[in-house]
Each structure stands twice: as structure tokens, then as C-alpha cells.
Task: structure prediction
Amino acid sequence: MKDPLQKSLDEQLANLSRDIPLPRNLWPGIRGRLDRNPRRGRPMAFAAAAGVVGACVASALTWAVLHGRAASPAIQVAAQAPSFDEPRNPSYVAARDELEVNFRERLALLDPATRARIEASLAVIRRAHEDIRKALTSDPASPVLEQLWQSTWRDELDLYERVVRATQPTMTRT
Amino acid sequence: MLHSAGAMDTAVEPADLIAAAVGGDLVAFEHLYRQFSPRVYGLCLRLTGQREAAEDCTQESFVAAWRALAGFERRSRFSTWLHRIAVHTVLARRRGLRVEYEVAEPASGLPEVAAGGDEPPLDLERAIAGLPDGARHVLVLVGIYGFSHAEAALALGVAEGTCKAQLHRARGLLAAALGLEKS
Result:
């Protein structure tokens, strides 16, 4: 059972307000710095990612056509989108999710040993992505971390694309 | 066990404002600042023990948050994400200003008005401010702001076991400072 004195201390801590009113309005200073330092653009990295996504979407659409399936709404949206500016773009995310579904379907066609190797590779990429994301949260201004983070996005999409592409001949023969 | 402020912090977050800010909407980001700055400031003030440093860290935190918004994946609450940035900002600043912090009066920036209730918590706040840095940081994060030990350890760059030991130490020191020790 908890020590009553310790319980009293915990209750006092629990009763502390987590909010403390600011003695002055900091927004003007923040706003001024945002003007001078707009969020960094990522044109090159995401152009590359968009290229990979575009290839994947094309593959997925080809696959859908070859198998008489209508492309899903997510793929249609992604295919119509002029660009994928960021991974947070809903169209981008929807297209990526749809591609992962297609990737999973293709993966199921491969032999167990190959499948295991690909799953292991994907796990490594995702673990790296998550680790870098956490590090980036702590150090959001780090260009190195940001570059690595973008790189893991590309690696994941590239893996999807390669699996889709590698299984294409098998699919067309059946 | 200390309460978990994070677990209790179930207030609905303004998803529309967050989404707009992620999309680059400065007005939405200003609204987020209005809503979340008192908590970020409270966290910074209790971690630094200095009003001016806490103001600077609060400002830095929101600037850093704006720049990092594109990386916010919504796997955690926005407030949790923002608090992690604030902790990192405080620790980064502290590393550069260690001497200044050591000579500052610990309680100089504490709130002058009690948050509510019958008993002003100022003694407790002063006692927290007087804790050694490591113990105070863990107590503030885990005891007041609801970080888990794992989250606090990650934010502070220490092992989880160290985090637990520091919390135990902080509670003992606080109990002594407040006269809550067993006689």
C-alpha cells in the first residue's frame, strides 16, 4: 500500500496546474521569425519520391487493367494529382496505402523464403524510418536527419515498386 | 505511483487547426499558439526555473514546431509532440547556458498567482525549483506533465532506470523539503 505521506505528495503534484499564463504575448516575436524563416521546401527529395510513387501508381494501374479491375479511388486520386508535395499530403498517403495493399497481394505470390527476405527488408526500413522520425522530433532543425527521413520514405516506396515490377510477368502469364 | 497527466490529458485537440497549420496556415498556427503556449510555458518554466529563459524556450519551441510541422505524423497527440520539442529546446539551451542557470535564483520565475484551490502551491513549486537538475527534470516531466518513464528517458537522453531512480530521489527530497518525512 502506498505511504500516506507519499500519497499526499503525489496529490499535491497532481493538483498543480500544468498551464502557467505567459507574462507577455510572445506571438509577435514568433511570427516575425516565421516570416524570416519559412518552412524549408523539399522539392528535390519529394520530386524523387513523387517519381517513385508515379512509377508505382503506373504499375498498379497496369496491374488493375490487366486483371480487369477498376483502379481504386485512392489510386485514381493519386494518378490525377499533379504532384506529391509531402508525405502528409492525403492523396499521397492514400496512394501509398493502396500501393501497400497491392504490394501485399503480390508478395503473397512469392515463395516463402523470398517473402521472408522482403518482409525483413521492409521491417528494417520502417524501423529506421521510425527511429529517424523520433530523432527528428527531438532535433527538427537537423538537415541530416531530414535527409535520412526522406531517404527511408523513398526506400519503402522503391521496395514496393520493385516487388510490383518483379511480379508483373508472372501476373500477366496467368 | 504518480498520476499520469498525459493519460489524463484527454481534451479533444483541434484537428482542423492542426491540419491547417500542417498545410502552412499561419493563422491556424497562431490559434494553436494561443491554445498551447500556457502549457508549453509552464513546462519550460518548471524545467528552467527562470522566467526569461522560459519565455525564450517557449518562443524557440513554437518556431521549431512550425519548421517541423511537415514531419508531424499524428501518431501521437499534437500536445505530446509539442512538449517533446519544448523539452529538447530547454535542454539544448541549458547546455549552452549552464553557468547562468547555476547562479540564478531557482524560484525567480515561478508563478505568482496560485492556479486555484484553497492552498497556494507556491511552497511546492519552490521545493521543485530547488531540486537538483536531474531530479527536477524527471519530476516535472513524469510527475506533472504525464510523460511515461520511457518518454522522459528518451527526451532527457538518459536510461529508463536512471529516470526511475531520479524520480524516487526527487520524491524523497521533496518530501523532506515539505516536511512530509516520517518522524
Q: What stands out?
A: Confidence is low (pLDDT under 50) at residues 40-86, 170-174 of chain A. The interface with chain B takes residues 2-3, 5-6, 8-10, 12-24, 26-27, 29-31, 33-34, 37, 39-40, 42, 86, 88, 133-134, 136-141, 146, 149 of chain A (CB under 8 Å). The longest helix of chain A spans residues 112-138. The radius of gyration of chain A is 23 Å.
